[in-house]
From TrEMBL:
Signal peptide region: 1-41
This protein's name: Glycoside hydrolase family 97 protein
Pfam families registered for this protein in UniProt: GH97_C, GH97_N, Glyco_hydro_97
Domain Glycosyl-hydrolase 97 catalytic: 313-500
Alphabetized UniProt keyword annotations: Hydrolase, Signal
Length: 698
């Protein structure tokens, strides 16, 4: 739909647009103000609809800068804007604001699947055209109640007709944080060897060198902010690089030849985003990233199905099985059928099978070129397992590990997706593990190039796999992905991704995930979108409680993860035999849905704890997940999100009185009581414990 207003007319006329997509329910009101180029004072302000956030943009000394106030206090000090091109030099020095357009939008759109059904998109917008007399470019700001977004647009224009190619060598964007010594930041290192798979650092902001986004921080006044980006397509990812204390520079991940972005006139950058909230749950209740993405481009996406799966997976991480051939091969026909039986019996719709295809023998980390994506090992019969699955109403979930050899994958991609489609596979997990953190591609001249996971080349490559899969009714769950920037709105078959340290690290990571890890993820990685964390490990310490590698949570914290860490697809990650031993607790994993009509973050603090309530889509039941770090905690949970007057059976899965992740992780209690919206539940979480509740409407 078009929200652009004509910027030529000097008017405050109100125009009403009829939205042209079905999901829009509100009318839009736009106002246009053009500032004549003779006006000298060049400060442009835009305020959020609730007036708490103010952005001001100036062009003092021919240099565009912005700053942001929240409730009257500066949260972003004057910060540079602009882009540097190999062909043009800086767009940002000697540029003045020549023209400004304002508009406002208040609309509601629907997610085909998601953490909530209806999303309100309400903002005030300003587009400033800057010019040096020869070249124009635009900076567009949107102020929402939950934060801001801005981006650059370089339109096609007469001054660029002789410059068909534009190479960006730097982005000048800065985020200047006042008082970095007294600002606490939660961050992972930017551009490291291991993509996004790190434990989070909690430090004062001035200690950051280079950080990936979302990078979340809290000011001395308790304001919570998170810097990230939205709608990253055909551009390099932004990492934050702190040169001088408090000045975070948008450092674009380069191509192997050093260029940051290869583009042409008529492009726009991704949105640079800052979520702003008065408290930590406020960050979690924000839809800013999705609102800054384009609407669904795929049309009818009823074939994209949220759901739950089990898989031939954890056994490999525990070393009980191998991906490659041999006596411990996991992906055999008989083992797959056994998992399909288990899935059918307990209501799971899919079985993920890793290691069925040729290429895993030897050091697969380093040898992605030998993967075949169509040739199965002799002990895996894809016809037989998919027919068997069909008879049980359980789908095979496909898997493609590329080990970062993306040209080898690209060369086989259409055959591989065709083959899955033919076998009724509707979901594929992809993987881009790459030794040393680099991606290997072969360029048009046959030369091997090493690229970053988050450079422009890979940004495009990941999306290519998603759009190719969409043509065949397949959804993609990317591991070792490019970070999420909300593209699920535009491409709803990009159903989930990893992009952080997941459960697998508990099997072999040194160290495994800490008790606080899942109390940080909601406020950092999860602000970007769904994560395939793969929760639900019941045998928390297969090698004993004292072993280095074990899961550092209580059992009920594993259940709480299904509600806390949102994903439309959730794995029950443990081995079937461990579930069969604890069927009472397993009931929660069977019941919990993965598609919601509402989601509310009720309470929490970053790195300490979090509590979410979510309402099942198409039903009246609510689910609650609460978890804590290593500190035992009591939470008073007001049930005022429930429908007033209605009675619910609360099925509570909680830590027992002696539960403790370190010494006694299996002490849990399952109890039920009848509750209504006027009640409060007193939750008691053990050290690294959690509570999971189903509120079944009566
Ligand atoms: C890393 C993924 O995160 C994991 O889930 C998968 O099992 C391995 N790669 C092998 O593809
Ligand atoms: Ca991984």
């Amino acid at each position: 739909m078009s929200t652009d207003s004509t910027s030529s007319a000097l008017s405050t006329a109100q125009l009403t647009f009829t939205p042209n997509i079905v999901s829009l329910s509100c009318a839009l009101v736009l106002a246009t103000i053009a500032i004549p180029s003779t006006v000298q004072a060049k400060t442009v302000n835009v305020t959020s609809p609730d007036k708490h956030i103010n952005i001001s943009l100036t062009d003092d000394n021919g240099r565009p800068e912005y700053q942001i106030q929240f409730n009257g206090k500066t949260v972003i000090s004057p910060s540079k804007l602009g882009l540097v091109f190999q062909q043009l030099g800086e767009l940002g020095t000697d540029f003045n604001i020549k023209h400004v357009t304002n508009s406002s939008v208040d609309q509601t759109w629907q997610q085909p699947w998601g953490e909530r059904e209806n999303i309100r998109d309400n903002y005030n917008r300003v587009v400033a055209t800057l010019s040096n007399g020869k070249i124009d470019f635009d900076i567009e700001f949107k102020a929402f109640n939950d934060g801001i977004g801005f981006r650059y647009l370089v339109p096609k224009q007469a001054g660029l007709t002789n410059t068909p190619k534009l190479d960006i060598t730097d982005e000048l964007t800065e985020f200047a944080i006042p008082d970095p010594q007294h600002t606490t930041a939660w961050w992972i290192p930017g551009r490291g060897w291991n993509r996004y798979e790190y434990l989070y650092n909690t430090t004062s902001l001035d200690k950051i060198d280079r950080a990936h986004t979302p990078m979340t921080f809290r000011t001395a006044d308790g304001v919570h902010l998170s810097i990230h980006e939205a709608a990253l397509t055909d551009y390099a990812a932004m990492v934050l690089n702190q040169g001088r204390d408090g000045i975070l520079h948008a450092d674009l991940t380069p191509w192997s030849d050093g260029i940051r972005v290869k583009t042409q006139p008529g492009f726009s950058t991704p949105w640079r985003t800052i979520q702003i909230a008065k408290d930590a749950p406020g960050l979690l209740n924000s839809d800013l990233i999705l609102n800054l993405n384009e609407p669904n481009k795929l049309g009818d996406v009823s074939w994209v199905q949220p759901g739950k799966y089990v898989g031939i997976w954890w056994g490999m991480h525990l070393n009980e099985n191998t991906w490659g051939s041999g006596p411990k091969h996991g992906a055999t026909t008989s083992e797959t059928k056994r998992y399909m039986d288990f899935a059918a019996q307990y209501g799971f719709d899919g079985v993920l099978v890793e290691g069925w295809n040729e290429g895993w023998d030897g050091s697969w980390f380093e040898n992605g070129d030998v993967f075949s994506f169509t040739q199965a090992y002799p002990d895996f019969d894809i016809d037989e397992v998919t027919e068997y699955g069909h008879s049980k109403n359980v789908r095979l979930i496909g898997h493609h590990e590329t080990s970062g050899s993306v040209t080898n994958y690209r060369n086989q991609m259409s055959d591989a997706y065709d083959m899955y489609q033919k076998h009724g596979v509707t979901q594929v997990k992809t993987g881009y593990v790459a030794d040393g953190g680099d991606i290997k591609r072969v360029d048009d001249n046959g030369i091997v190039r090493h690229e970053w996971h988050d450079g422009q080349f890979m940004v495009n490559e990941y999306l290519y796999s998603v759009t190719e899969a969409a043509k065949r009714g397949i959804s993609i769950n990317t591991h070792e992905p490019i970070k999420d920037t909300g593209l699920r709105r535009t491409y709803p078959n990009w159903i989930a991704r990893e992009g952080a340290r997941g459960q697998e690290y508990n099997a072999w990571g040194s160290p495994p995930n800490t008790p606080e890890h899942t109390a940080i993820l909601p406020y950092t990685r999860m602000l970007a979108g769904p994560m395939d964390f793969t929760p639900g490990i019941f045998n928390l310490a297969p090698q004993g409680l004292d072993a280095v590698n074990r899961v550092k949570t209580t059992l009920t914290k594993q259940l709480a993860l299904y509600v806390v860490l949102y994903s439309p697809i959730q794995m029950a990650a443990d081995l079937p035999r461990n579930y069969v031993q604890r069927l009472d607790a397993f009931q929660f994993i069977q019941d919990v849905p993965t598609d919601w009509s509402e989601s509310i973050a009720l309470a929490g603090d970053i790195g300490d704890y979090v509590a979410f309530a979510r309402k099942q889509r198409g039903a009246e039941d609510w689910y609650v997940g609460a978890l804590t770090d290593e500190v035992p905690r009591k939470i008073n949970l007001k049930l005022d999100f429930l429908t007033p007057g209605k009675r619910y059976e609360a099925q509570i899965y909680r830590d027992g009185a002696k539960a403790d992740w370190l010494t006694n992780p299996y002490d849990y209690v399952i109890e039920t009581k009848t509750v209504t919206a006027i009640e409060t539940l007193d939750l008691s979480l053990a050290a690294s414990g959690g509570t999971a509740i189903r509120l079944k409407a009566l």
